[in-house]
Amino acid sequence: MKLEAKPSQAAGMNKNTAQQQKTLEERFVYKDDDLIDKAFDWRQFTRLFGYMKPYAKQMLPLVSIMMILGTITKLTVPFLTSLAIDRAIAPKEGNPSLTLLYTLTASVIVLYLIQWIAGVYRIKYTNVIGQRVIYDLRSDLFKHIQKLSFNFFDKRPAGSVLVRVTNDINSLQDLFTNGVVNLMIDCVQLLGITVILLLINWKLGLAVMITVPVMFLISTKLRQKIRLAWQDVRMKNSRINSHLNESIQGIRVTQAYTQERENMNYFDSMNMDSKKSWDKASAMNQGFGPIIEVTGGFGTMILFWFGAYLIQSGELTVGFLVAFSTYVSNFWDPINRLGQMYNQLLVAMASSERIFEYLDEQPAVQDKPGAQPIPKINGDIVFDKVVFEYEKGRAALKGIDLNVQAGQSIALVGHTGSGKSTIINLIGRFYDITSGKITIDGQDIRDVTLESLRSQIGIVLQDTFIFSGTIRDNIRFGRLDATDQEVEEAAKAVDAHEFITKLPGGYNTEVEERGSALSMGQRQLLSFARALLANPRILILDEATASIDTETELKIQEALKILLQGRTSFIVAHRLSTIRHADKIVVLDHGEVKEVGTHSELTAHEGVYNGLIEAQFRFL
Ligand SMILES: Nc1ncnc2c1ncn2[C@@H]1O[C@H](COP(=O)(O)OP(=O)(O)OP(=O)(O)O)[C@@H](O)[C@H]1O
Question: What is any Pfam family matched here (predicted)?
Fold first, then answer.
């Protein structure tokens, strides 16, 4: 469901900014999850609680013992109070007994002590269970997301993926650490109190409990609304997070186009929306408690009215009426909490539904049954009538035939959108082709394991990703078991050593995520060193288009020569120097191969390639 943002409520907005706001609303459209208005799903519930299974055997008995101990001690106190009144303070027959009063008081103190100790240990054990469940769930989700194919990320903004790993999991945290055990305690307590009330005086017990069905009837009507209101809050927050993520990633563009104010206005309106939605949900939630209290008040009225009558008729003692009223007040508490717990459970169900939706998402590209690892790759690659569609019915590649021999370097050229990046994504099988066949050393790449294939392919992308960590760690990303010496040798080979040693910490210089403290050329040299260290049989390179100074360009060309030696390579080429040295130049146009040949072959006649070269020179 696509949600349109509502007009900003931000103060001080004039007509002009309202117009700009409208443009922003049209600009930022986030795909939201649909409101989930389904009945309580037991299958999902059992699946969620299945995460407790590994720990239940070990921990639940301990938690249960502590819980039962706590409940018994809690429920015994009012009984001892009734004894104190009826037998020690105001006995019907005989004198008041101080000794009995002291004994009962001492017993109550001991019971409170036991209750306290049982509570401490119960909380300790439940926290252990809760934290372990959350740990497992979080790591399952992260592991799974790592395996998902490119098409999954093509469809989703990074922010919304982030929200599921953080917010949705966190919202389950409370359920597992407190909720589940409180639920159990409340149920046991309710059961215990019901039995006790009926045992003390079944007539009074039944009279008081008349209000319970009324209470449930009112609260069930409210529950559904409360759940939907909380889902709305969650959805709005998720939209804020998506926008936040996009805004931070795109901050440079925002500032360059001085769009900060408009961005802020839009954020404001989303923030306001979220606040309103929270207020609404919270008000509904708060309404739930008083309803229970008012209904409970009726129960108490019945208790004293009917209780007084039973005392007069000699069916009940004053002590038992006092005990009864304590039990009854202990009765409304768990019912009230159960209502809140039900809400918490429903919110958690919505979160878990979203988490399970990701966990159930199968990677579009995966090993087929019985796939074998591809042996050491020699490097012969054949594209046989390869057709590929990102979206059904829109072919990005329309029947590509290509024959590459081991060790050759292939330059892919063509205007924007012609299919160059698509071809390189298919070699590493990041997408599965729609029809045709891609073979490496005669083996269809769909028949071999992904890991064996990708581990022999090195990819250097245009947007070279630098992870937060040291320069050394970033190069070592190519091969985690490489020694320091090997890392430095790789850097020397691609001529990155010099600039690295000039950095304040040399190889140990910490770089931030994306390596913004490094220049484009430096980042590219680092990624070359990383690829060289990985020593792949096939190298894929998406050349940076940014203009680099001639000196760095020369360095990069020299580095490239070393990098390409003895490997089959595909380069999405932009620089003439790269294209000129390629063994084969593949000219693409609208997803089709238009020309194939060396630089001198292709420039010898008029064609698409010549047109591209001429266009480059025209601007020099
Ligand atoms: N993830 C995607 N989902 C849908 N369509 C896509 C996706 N990626 C690319 N396309 C489409 O596929 C076609 C080929 O895109 P591709 O990225 O391969 O072009 P390119 O030649 O590498 O372009 P450039 O030189 O601009 O990088 C384009 O029409 C593009 O719109």
Answer: ABC_membrane
CA of 160 to the centre of ligand 1 (A): 23
**pLDDT band at residue 214 under the 50/70/90 scheme:** confident
Spell out the alpha helix ranges (H) of 148-201: 150-155, 158-163, 169-174, 180-200
Cα separation of 531 and 474, whole Å?
11
Take residue 470 and report the two structure tokens written for it.
């040291």
Distance 421 CA to ligand 1 centre (A): 7
Question: 420 CB under 6 A from ligand 1?
Answer: yes
**Would you kindly state where each structural domain of the chain is located, as residue ranges?**
42-360, 406-432+446-618
Place of tokens 């159930």: 360
**Helices (H), ranges, 201-259:** 202-209, 211-249, 251-256
Tell me, what's the ipTM?
0.96
- Whether 286 shows a pLDDT value over 90: the answer reads no
Phi, psi of 104 (to 5 degrees): -65, -40
Q: Which two tokens stand for residue 225?
A: 């609304």
Cβ of 462 less than 6 Å from ligand 1 = no
Ligand 1, atom 30: closest residue by C-alpha:
417
CB 35 within 8 A of CB 2: no
Helices (H), 390-445: 420-427
Q: Which two tokens stand for residue 598?
A: 């060396």
The CATH H-level (homologous superfamily) assignment of domain 42-360 is ABC transporter type 1, transmembrane domain (1.20.1560.10)
CA 323 → CA 108, 190, 267, 336, 457, distances in Å?
Answer: 14, 15, 56, 20, 77
pLDDT digits (tens, 9 = 90+) for 336-352: 777 667 767 777 887 88
Q: What pTM, to 2 d.p., does this model score?
A: 0.70
Alpha helices in 448-496 (DSSP H): 450-454, 471-476, 484-493
Per-residue pLDDT tens for 437-490? 999 999 999 999 999 999 899 888 776 778 888 899 889 988 888 899 989 988
Give the model confidence (pLDDT) of 543-566 as tens digits.
765 545 667 677 777 777 777 888
Q: How do residues 226-252 score in pLDDT, each as one tens digit? A: 778 877 887 888 788 878 888 888 888
Phi, psi of 64 (to 5 degrees): -65, -45
Q: Angle 394-400-404 (CA atoms, 0-180°, nearest 5)?
A: 145
Write down the CATH number for the domain with range 406-432+446-618.
3.40.50.300
Q: How far is the CA of 422 from the centre of ligand 1 (A)?
A: 6
Q: How far is the CA of 294 from the CAs of 215, 287, 297, in angstroms? A: 9, 11, 5
